[in-house]
Amino acid sequence: xxxxxxxxxxxxxxxxxxNRDGFLGIGxxxxxxxxxxxxxxxxxxxxxxQQLMEGSAxxxxxxxxxxxxxxxxxxxxxxASVDKLKSIYDEVLEFKDVIGLSIGTRPDCLSEEIVDxxxxxxxxxxxxxxxxxxxxxxxxLRMINRGHDLHCFIxxxxxxxxxxxxxxxxxxxxxxxxxxxxxxxTAKTIADLGCExxxxxxxxxxxxxxxAEKYDNNELKLLSLQxxxxxxxxxxxxxxxxxxxxxxxxxxxxxxxxxxxxxxxKQSVLKQIDLELENRMSYQGKEWLKQNNLCR
Length: 296
Fold this sequence. Notes:
Layout: E1 7-11, H1 34-37, H2 48-63, E2 68-72, H3 82-93, E3 98-105, H4 112-119, E4 126-134, H5 138-143, H6 150-162, E5 166-173, H7 180-193, E6 197-202, E7 205-206, H8 210-216, H9 225-238, E8 244-247, E9 257-259, H10 266-280, H11 286-291
Parallel strand pairs: 1-2, 2-3, 3-4, 4-5, 5-6, 6-8
Antiparallel strand pairs: 7-9
Helix pairs in contact: 7-9, 9-10
């Protein structure tokens, strides 16, 4: 909805997570080794300005673009005081050609004061808040050690929407013990809340995580590529066609990746999802439109 191309510069500004530092828990979610999800964590600490300069230079060279969205990805990017957050967000927006902010966080780190702060940027820049849900099933959230429940996510999204702030929900398909109905329940939850964006990740195993221990002990069943593609299409059919799909697969760095191998071939994953859509003669919103007595 920008009307022009803009690419994200991924930032690590030194935040941690309440599920890792002892406030809520220690060790984080069972799949989380943040180096696996954030390449910047593999490098020595760099200033915000250095990350912006290096990131924008690489994107200019590769894609010939000159407008960027600063993406606060690593850990929980609202887990600090209002004053500190304001200082960081302001510094980023002063960088030439940054036209937007995308703030990745947890639903339990969006207090009224922080939501009020973020709302101040709504009319100043192109703004998204990316909120991790992973699953709408409370039993799953406990199993993966998320440290929050579904109600917490619903409350956070509703408060962001009260300020007309765009929300991109993050979900994982293939979580332990989840059925197709559980995946559809998560999809319906996202649809009912009116989230404007969505990122879908396949469950994949990263080194040095609790999930890796379970995998090594044969306590974990992972999806095949075909199973993942089928569930992704189920998910897409269940949500409104207006939700912007910002990601539909993911993988960590090869050096940290354990399984499944198919995650590492992004193009094959995308092709399999396209094939599933074609075989079903389907599209995003197909079932949602039927349920709401609407036509495409």
